[in-house]
Amino acid sequence: MQQQDLERGDQGRWMRLSVAVLFIVCIIFAVGVGFDSSYMLIIAAMIGGYMAINIGANDVANNVGPAVGSGALKLSGAIVIAGLFESAGALIAGGEVVGTIKSGIINPALIADSDTFVWLMMAAMLSGAIWLNLATAFGAPVSTTHSIVGGVLGAGIAAGGLGIADWPKMGAIVASWVISPVLGGFIAAGFLYLIKRTITYKKDRLAAARRVVPLLVALMVWMFSAYLMLKGFKKIWKVDIFTALGVGLLVGLTVFIVVRPLVARATKSMNNDKVAINRLFTLPLIFAAALLSFAHGANDVANAVGPLAAINDALLHGGIATKAAIPLWVMIIGATGIVVGLALYGPKLIRTVGSEITELDQMRAFCTAMAAAITVIVASQLALPVSSTHIAVGAVFGVGFLREHLKVAYAQAIHEIERHHQGEDQVIVEDFLHEFEDAPLERQQVMLQQLKDNSSQARLTRAERKSLKKIFREQLVKRSALYKIGTAWVVTVPASGLMAALLFFAIRGFMQG
């Protein structure tokens, strides 16, 4: 039986590899025969396709992983939705022009000639793709943007020396390693705590849901409308923050009017428990996954095809342009490659983000989606260079750590109750515990305060608190995932940069030899 599983696993790996290779072969045929292109452009197109596959395998998981982990979407449905909306975002709103030097981190004036520029961009693109491939193999979601930034920086230094880099810009990117996940984590945790205080901690959860869920859905629509206008359509329709928020508010209010009676009708036949409340967040989560995928396709497809468009422009016109037009065939390679990578290799990272960091239900996944949209809006207004990958994963960790904190606090409360009732009849203790568990949060706080007022012996020692924290910490947040992902984030730019420098020297030596 085990041998058969291994054989099926090997067959699956070979099948995925064969499809990926077939995609690259199709690129060679289409670019080489269809456009009568030079061999350098054919090689660059192959690398661009390889990069797009790895973006689909690694980066797209952040948009749909929480929805899958919470059970709102099945894996197959998530892949279909993400594939459709990623490609739609790339082709509809991906823009016609891209910056050739990603994030302005190197000075193009210090690049010797167009040949050197082409070699630089090829090395940067290939190193970013290889790093994403390695990160996917190890199950670590990393920033595609940082992978390309590292590649451009490393190849740029190899081509023009240390003076070519914009080090203050790099400092801002390094700062984003901390800013992105912390912002995402705090916002997601804040929304989860809000939901708990206003719905799940109430005695009549259904009545609370009728009041609060329509407001949360309307707020989500407001933020996502603004998010799409600022990020998803920014290359075809530029609006300022106030216009985006104003239009988004109108859309959100309209949705509130529509959703409120629907929620009221749905809750009439529901049980008064968390499982039922969770179901109310399923449809909003599906929409969130779709809209996040659309915005990702509109923005991050440039990470795959931006260097390819730059190489195409340099080979056609000579010289080094700071902006390059993106031909339709280049955008199609990027969009198709992302979908292929998602379908072939995306499930591994989807499971990592959705279920291997902490357990997610629909309410928790909803909070991570809200954090993704709000953090990007806030960061763009403050001109902070944040990573959507870091935000999404940080939001999942934020939700997990809040759950951990609340579980430890609850365990301490139960322990205090048991200590206070030591020596009393077991029936009395159980009655008090049942009353405490069924009470709304405000009543629980009153009950605990009465215990503390009546007994100074009910406080836990430091050793007991540490013991309780250790028990629940291991259950709710997987520390190995935290260390693995954190390490991958820290080494992304230097690892990609070092590979790019070595690849640049190899390409230059081969071309000049």
Tell me what the structure shows.
The structure is a single chain. The chain is mainly alpha-helical and 513 residues long. It has one domain (37-404, 475-512). It has 18 helices and two strands. It has helices at 2-34, 39-58, 61-69, 75-93, 114-137, 144-160, 167-200, 205-232, 241-267, 274-279, 282-317, 328-356, 362-381, 388-420, 426-438, 441-454, 462-476, 479-512; strands spanning 97-99, 323-325. Strands 1-2 form a two-stranded antiparallel ribbon. Helix 5 packs antiparallel against helix 6. The chain is elongated, with a radius of gyration of 26 Å.
Set out the fold topology.
Blueprint: H1 2-34, H2 39-58, H3 61-69, H4 75-93, E1 97-99, H5 114-137, H6 144-160, H7 167-200, H8 205-232, H9 241-267, H10 274-279, H11 282-317, E2 323-325, H12 328-356, H13 362-381, H14 388-420, H15 426-438, H16 441-454, H17 462-476, H18 479-512
Antiparallel strand pairs: 1-2
Helix pairs in contact: 1-2, 1-12, 2-5, 2-11, 2-12, 3-4, 3-12, 3-13, 4-11, 4-12, 5-6, 5-11, 5-18, 6-18, 7-8, 7-13, 7-14, 8-9, 8-11, 8-13, 11-12, 11-13, 13-14, 14-17
Average pLDDT, all residues: 83
What is the helix fraction of residues, given as a range? over 70%
What's the story with the biggest beta sheet?
Answer: 2 strands, antiparallel
- Number of DSSP-assigned strands: 2
Distance between the termini: 54 Å
Integer-rounded radius of gyration: 26 Å
Low-confidence stretches: none
Shape: elongated
Pairing-aware structural class of the strands and helices?
A: mainly alpha
Helix and strand element order = HHHHEHHHHHHHEHHHHHHH
Whole-number count of domains: 1
Biggest sheet: strand arrangement: 1-2
Assembly of the depicted chains: single chain
Proportion in β-strands: under 5%
Number of helices: 18
